[in-house]
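thought: fold this chain, then report.
action: predict
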Amino acid sequence: MREIRIYHVDAFTTEKFGGNTAGVVLDAEKLTEDEMQSIAKELNLPESVFLLPSNNEDVDYKVKYYTPSEEINFCGHATVGLTWLLATEFGLSEKKEGIVLETNIGKIPVVWHKEKNGNIINVEMTQVTPKTQNFTIDLEELSHLIGVKTESIDPTYPIKLASTGNWHLLVPMKNQMYIDNAMPDLTALGKHNKEHNISTTHLYTFNTSKDCDLYTRDFAPGIGIAEDPVTGAANGALAGFLYLESVIPQSEMTHLKIAQGDAVGRPGMLYATVIPNELEAVIKVAGAATITIRGILTI
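observation:
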């Protein structure tokens, strides 16, 4: 009989039941990959992260990410949830300034920012170098897939794919209301995204009533998630896209405050920092978290 420690951690929020819940599974060296997938399906959260020891001297842990239906290469909110847990619940922040995680897409450094009294403010991950890719799609087809009127899509910015580990289809929208009112055809969107190796379809706008720079919403039916409440990976890719397309300056550091989750009753906030470096900008995404469930799974 094996006992596996499991946590629910709400990421990109300071409020319980807000942000995006990640399953955090420790003791994953006791599990097979099939068991990891079964646990992720049982937890039925957007993503779950599994912590493993690493054989590499320059990293602290190996991690694997699963949705309820498949393994994915990277997940931002699960990374925040895991490292918040390690820093707070297990006191790792008292011994180290941060850690390096080994993922399917490479090394992800994570640091924690503290108050003077030692309390953790947030954790910040450095994502892999952003990339973009042209993507051609008929606006009528896209409008049907994401459930909006064609005229609500903002022609100011190009519709492109962007990645800091997973490919996301970025769709500019004219305002927050149009994003909140989107009613995607999840079956058709999931099929489309699978065909084009797209992890999520990410709607965004600068025109928002909230105290932030950008407002976003994210759909991922192709990987088993109808809607991901607050997405570190997609918003990191969005920040990289904005840099590479010169929407934000390529000559100075940019800080972006991004709100998401309101449409599903789980409001959250994340903070993206873009550090210029020609075509290899450094993308950092930070957020707070809160632990909601602590449990033991017996196998």
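thought: worth noting. The mean pLDDT is 97.
final: tokens above.
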